[in-house]
Amino acid sequence: MSSNRIDDAPLSGFHKKLALYSSGGPFLDGYILSIIGVAMTQITPQLQLSESAQGLIGASALIGIFLGAFAGGWLTDKFGRQVLYTVDLVAIIVCSVAQFWATDPVWLFVLRLVIGMAVGADYPIATSLMAEFTPRKHRGVLLGGLLVMWFAGGSIAYIAGEAMLSLGDDGWRWMLASAALPATVIVLLRLGTPESPRWLVKKGRTVEAEKILKDVFGPEATLADLGEEERENVDVKAILRSGYGKRMLFVSVFWTCSVVPLFAIYAFGPVILDALKLEGDLASYGSAVISVLFTLGTVAALFVVNRMGRRTLLTHSFVWSGAALLLLGLFPDAPSSVVMALFSAYAVLIGGTQILQWIYPNELFPTEVRGTAVGLASSLSRIGAAVGTYLVPMALSGWGIGNTMLAAAAISIAGAVASVAWAPETRGLTLQQSATLSDPAEPARQPVTN
């Protein structure tokens, strides 16, 4: 019997469907966090928002993600991946529809806060389920592919948002409520998804785990193929103290540096492009074009993540995307074509850091705390993202667009430094090898190609 029957299994229809259904959460996340950028052009004058109120509403979902991601991670490690896999999306449906009737900034802030909590909870749930079912050769591509769907959701949000502006003064209400439609479809698709057999083994539910293994991987699959041991009562603090603290620091820092500039651009894209002298329709449609390029950048990163390796891709992505932001900061009065070219370069080059946000955390931590680790890293990254998004309107008015872009560039360069100092290489490893604190995989670190 091969000890790698699961890790070296071929990609099956089950894996493809699981990837599709799991990608629904990231798609909604990108849609929800992006469409607010278009909606704010109507919300601000109608609700007479101050700069502080604009920042709070723009950051509200990010604050919610901070709260929801850690709670969702803890819950998914305690109660299972499958149980929460659909429940979190129901909250998104209800609160999205409720936004249609929001009449004041506080009501809108609260609704988007709850939506963010539900979105954040889905991060560790869906990614843990994906990581624990996927063969190692395809794990990086399928996990990274979830981020592609984030950007796809963002691209569709900008396009749909621009279309709904034609609905008049209530266009922003239809924009914010529209997330309920894809959320409903995703909930229906996710029904019937099996529980993670790795999690079941940790909880001592070996009979259920083995049945799922045989259903998914064939009748010869057994619990021995998982390489997991029953170990239910694991103290997360003890695991962090035993050496995983450095990994948590690395993941949190690179994730934060990756999302702070990006979420600011998504939440206030038209405003930023307007400050760079791209006015009117060009500012709005320029945001849609850049959003599409973000998607293309993540797709391109998927093609090289197994060839370049995680560490090299992460470092280069930070360096070259940061260089594009640096040039925008140094030359904010450049011609519109140059501004669009630099923003486009940033959008494409940042793709490597984006797909690794869900690859690295799921590979670097063991099954019993994988959900908690992903949730905690996501929560910590959202602190910086929420603060950065909140400060954008004030930074634009106080610092000017040039210095704001220089600050964004500095954050990207900090991510590059952290990557050089701390990023491990997990390409080609089994889930058990990549999660161990020792270095068991020198022989296993062989290029894995698609």
UniProtKB/TrEMBL annotation:
Pfam families (alphabetical): Sugar_tr
Membrane topology qualifier: Multi-pass membrane protein
Matching SUPFAM superfamilies: MFS general substrate transporter
Keywords: Membrane, Transmembrane, Transmembrane helix, Transport
The organism's place on the tree of life at top rank: Bacteria
Domain Major facilitator superfamily (MFS) profile: 18-427
Transmembrane residue ranges: 20-43, 55-76, 83-101, 107-129, 141-160, 172-193, 249-273, 285-305, 312-331, 337-360, 372-392, 404-423
Subcellular localization, as worded in the UniProt entry: Cell membrane
UniProt-listed Gene3D superfamilies: MFS general substrate transporter like domains
Alphabetized PANTHER family for the sequence: PROTON MYO-INOSITOL COTRANSPORTER
Family: Belongs to the major facilitator superfamily. Sugar transporter (TC 2.A.1.1) family.
Name under which the protein is recorded: MFS transporter
Species of the source: Streptomyces cavernicola
